[in-house]
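W.,

You were right to be curious about this one. When I first looked at the sequence I had no strong expectations either way, so I just let the prediction run and decided to look at it fresh. Below is the sequence, 425 residues in total, followed by the output.
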Amino acid sequence: MEQYLDDMIEDLRGLIAIKSVKDEPAPNAPYGEGTLKALEYMLNLGKKYGMQAVNIDGRAGYLEYGEGKHMIGVLLHLDVVPEQDGWTSDPYTLTERDGFLYGRGVSDDKGPAIAAFYALVDLIKKGEIKGYRVRLIFGLDEECGSSCMAHYVKTEELPTMGFVPDADFPVIYAEKGILTVAIGGEGNKDISLQAGDRPNVVPGKCRVEYEGKKFVYEGKPAHGAAPFNGINAIKIAIENNPVLTGIPIIEFFRDALADKHYGEGLDIDCKDETGRLTVNPGVMVIDKEKSVCVLNIRYPVTYDYKEIVEKIEKVCGRYDLRAVYTDNNPPLYADKNSVLVSTLLSVYREMTNDYTEPIAIGGGSYARSMPNLVAFGMNMPGDLESAHQANECIKKQRLYEGAAIYREGIKRLGETLINQKGHCQ
């Protein structure tokens, strides 16, 4: 697949240049014009190779090739989280330095989208898709709740089986549940505070204003599934501004959340084979009308989210606060011995000679949106995790390495469908 590298980089350059952050709805673009442009870009690439290209109401789309009853699905997302300060190059210009490619979405998930695309291109060129179909499914709202895939499920044919290139190799057998809880209380007429844009990102800035004075405190953004990799700007503000005291939601943060990444301060610290619960206070707002802190919680697969919410509410009561909103995305668990997991694991091991066991993650992917899917790459063991951060990057070689693994994964799953008549469990 290395022979495609120059083309892959150029196509990725064009995709990175599209700022596909969710925005206000526009005609035929419910998630904003940028996301629609990204979808159209990929659909146009596919048409060059004879792929069927379909736009699904501006919410999702797909490229398909092949014939047959059964379908291999490869689910990818083209939306990205907003850029933040700290970039050493333009986040929407693909930049190469020291063997790495930099740009917003290069890791999450535009780079993997290009790798999967070229995996399909190579299979088409060599005539190796026989007796089944391959569909690259593109979503446009993964970073804000995946309503795009909910729409797809309602309106389109589901894959027989497949994978999601939006996590890590060797293969993800479990994804923790994702629980969003908004803690609310009374407003404050003297102080305003704003930190964070999305609950699933560690806030990198916290803005405080009072008595006509404005302050900006900086932290370090990170993915909300790994808050310990970042520095929460809310914590920095509280530690460095003496005015931020005596306010219920501030005291709640100080006592129950600051540097308590595993829920210790909320009495929800727990773990199982899929890992330990994590808590990211991703958004805080204080104004005249309200005070709100939004928590992004990743909980182990064997725990009940309702019990977690009950414990949080007990702690909130001590500060005259309450849970004003909750949203739960249930966990995913796939049998390690299933045909799907074992087939993809075999492909990875044969191509890398790495015998790392299947893993569980705190991140969420499209794998939980449909049956018979698991996340599969594209990060290799030991790779720098830079998703949702400034200077997001991947090793340049990962493009063709990932494409080669995806090529073989698609082919092997297709052969499995033909040989087993579509049974994947």
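Here's what jumped out at me. Residues 239 and 254 are 9 Å apart (CA to CA). And, maybe more interesting for your project: The chain is about 30% helix and 25% strand.

Coffee later to discuss?

I.
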